[in-house]
Specification:
Blueprint: H1 34-39, H2 46-57, H3 66-73, H4 80-84, H5 91-105, H6 110-123, H7 127-142, H8 145-152, H9 160-167, E1 190-194, H10 200-203, H11 205-217, E2 220-223, H12 233-237, H13 241-255, E3 262-265, H14 268-275, H15 277-280, H16 288-297, E4 298-300, H17 301-308, E5 320-323, H18 327-330, H19 337-344, E6 350-352, H20 367-370, H21 372-389, E7 393-395, H22 399-412, E8 417-419, H23 421-438, H24 441-445
Length: 447
């Protein structure tokens, strides 16, 4: 752990400064903390958890204690407290250290250790193994087995956690059709690399396809290094800090020779993680400077398009849309206006603001699997606010949010769709091109 004395609450420097991380107990984090709002318990607020971390540092409780583990892992790490904090407390960094300390000191049951090893060290880092698993899942869904299993009641033979995971399964689409080069064209106006991630290509291939088309319509040469791997966010947030560092090194090496000016990410959680490689590897003598150079190149797709000046050849998309802020885009990366600016630029699209759009939906990586009851309570509040907007589409830029909100909408039978903002942009570009091909000369002259 970091800090000269290995303290969980040691000062954690950023790229530009070393902020004061001492919690002043002002309480401004309380009204934005999802678990505190649900439970009203001080120990389930950011400052309450910091108190527990200090208790561990002072030796009053052990990091392996049930109490410490319970309250650390009940946190969503949505980082809303960081946005609200006047003292610059980097709560997420402290939480990552706390969870790492728990994993280092607590011995898991044999079955749990094997399962964690398979998921975190074998499956997630391997794009090939992930693809095989999702092909099997696609077969399960598209050949009638899923309907048969659900209709037969067979799922009741399995533990509740397995039933909850099966209920959350989205429809697995076909694999992405694009094939990108290893390096970007040097002659292009903009040169970018696409970070594909581990889950996005398998569950949200159409989002990647839309991202590539939108980037190309904005004069950007797109490449995608084949050696890239999982960003490591799920590992770091679950206490697997060593593996997160290893994945960071692999990604840095994969992207170093891509010839691109920027690394583009369309998953908010991945983007926040990639931008924090500089901190994660700051004590690595081989990778510290390389990590800093890499992190400086990372941009969310909305951030990038908004900064270069969006190609305005957009057709009409007559939809009422509301936007939900992914926590790791708003609180993790400080990006609020860019996705809204892009949506507002689409002709015909009516953007309606969502109440508490800055609140977590309950997904938080794998939180909805590890803490399903709390995740469901938080999601229920979100879906209630979404229903009141009267929107036809909910736009959000993170895979976990897309899955979680989709599940909530299905459970209430709401007449809403869920989409990534880049998919709506892609639809607008396609509408424009369609009009160019089919419109009358008089219509085209007014375009």
């Amino acid at each position: 752990m970091k800090g000269e004395a290995g303290h969980l609450v040691a000062t954690l420097p950023t790229e530009h400064e070393t902020p004061n991380l001492d919690c002043i107990h002002c309480g401004l984090c309380l009204p934005v903390c999802p678990t505190y709002l649900q439970l009203g318990s001080e120990v389930d607020s950011p400052r309450g958890r910091i108190y527990l971390m200090k208790a561990v540092d002072e030796g009053r409780i052990s990091p392996s204690s049930v109490t410490f583990e319970k309250h650390m892992f009940l946190c969503l790490e949505c980082r809303a407290c960081e946005t609200a904090c006047p003292s610059g407390v980097k709560f997420s960094l402290m939480m990552n250290e706390a969870r790492s300390a728990i994993r280092e000191t607590r011995k898991p049951a044999a079955w749990e250790g094997l399962l964690r090893s398979f998921i975190f060290k074998t499956m997630l880092p391997s794009r090939r193994l992930l693809h095989v698993n999702f092909r099997l899942l696609r077969f399960y869904q598209r050949n009638g087995f899923q309907k048969l299993v659900r209709a037969s009641g067979m799922l009741h033979l399995f533990p509740r956690r397995v039933r909850e995971m099966e209920a959350l399964l989205p429809e697995v689409p076909a694999s992405p059709r694009y094939r990108l080069p290893e390096a970007a064209l040097s002659s292009a106006r903009h040169r970018v690399s696409l970070f594909e991630g581990c889950i996005m290509p398998e569950l949200f291939g159409p989002v990647h396809e839309a991202t590539v088309r939108v980037l190309e319509r904005n004069e950007s040469s797109v490449c995608s290094p084949s050696r890239q791997t999982c960003c490591g966010a799920l590992h770091l947030h679950d206490g697997e800090e060593a593996m997160a560092r290893e994945l960071a090194r692999r990604n840095i090496e994969a992207f170093e020779k891509d010839g691109a000016d920027f690394v583009i990410v369309n998953a908010a959680g991945c983007g926040a993680m990639l931008k924090e490689y500089a901190h994660l590897l700051e004590e690595d003598p081989v990778f510290a400077e390389r990590a800093l150079a890499f992190s400086r190149r990372v941009k969310d797709i909305s951030e990038y398009l908004d900064s270069i000046g969006l190609n305005q050849k957009l057709g009409r998309v007559d939809l009422k849309v509301t936007y939900d802020d992914p926590c790791h885009l708003l609180h993790g990366q400080g990006i609020k206006a860019a996705p809204r600016n892009l949506l507002k630029s689409i002709p015909g699209l009516e953007l309606v603001e969502l109440r508490d759009a800055d609140r977590c939906c309950g997904s938080a990586g794998i939180y909805n699997l590890t803490q399903p009851e709390m995740a469901a309570r938080i999601l229920d509040d979100k879906i209630g606010n979404l229903a009141r907007t009267g929107a036809q589409v909910v736009a959000t830029g993170n895979p976990g949010c897309l899955l979680q909100i989709s599940q909530g909408i299905r459970s209430r039978n709401l007449p809403m769709d869920v989409a990534h903002p880049v998919e709506l942009l892609d639809r607008a570009y396609q509408a424009y091109e369609s009009k160019q091909m089919t419109g009358t000369p008089e219509e085209l002259s007014t375009n």
